[in-house]
Amino acid sequence: MLIETLTLSLLIGKLRGGKIRNLEWLNIKGWYLFVISFILEMISLLIVSRSNGKLSGIIENNFFYIHIIVYLFLILGLSMNIREKGLLITLLGSILNFIPLLGNEGRMPVSIKGLKSSHLYEQLTLLEEGKILTHTLSHKGTKLYYLSDIIPISRPYPFPKIISIGDLLIAIGLFVLIQYYMTNNSRRGKMITISYGGK
């Protein structure tokens, strides 16, 4: 959903007369925390999906801790930037996604009913077979069910999926951030004023 959110945000920003180059004024503190978070999760998933060795087994058995660390880096990074427009909303969404992970062995529960209503049968099969490391099927014992992936987005949407309340907030926050920078020239004006203030 992240790529879709970013693409839509940029498109709407352009339609509103905004400029993509304005995003260069966005100064993300602790950007390396997001990079570490992304790399840690991607490497873990790649190793598990492409090998059956000892390392793969260690990652699977300890993925709860790995996923928690990934989210802690993400939440810490967002916390360092909450003064940026929209990122407080994104932080709240990330926390709401983090909470059900804590209660469900480090994996985000996914609604079976939602998967079926969106005709995501392939994903349902993969989850039944335990082949998606980051997610698990919801059941009667699922904790914090209403914070899980329970919101179906079906066709005619071109990329049907199941999302959570946290996902929605993350998308809204990023949308607000991008719109603010693309359509706001005040920061650039201030930089020019400072640069040429002595003339």
From TrEMBL:
The chain crosses the membrane at residues 31-50, 62-80, 86-103, 162-182. The keyword Membrane applies. Coiled coil: none annotated. Keywords: Membrane, Transmembrane, Transmembrane helix. The keyword Cell division does not apply. This is DUF5317 domain-containing protein. The lineage of its organism: Bacteria, Bacillati, Bacillota, Tissierellia, Tissierellales.
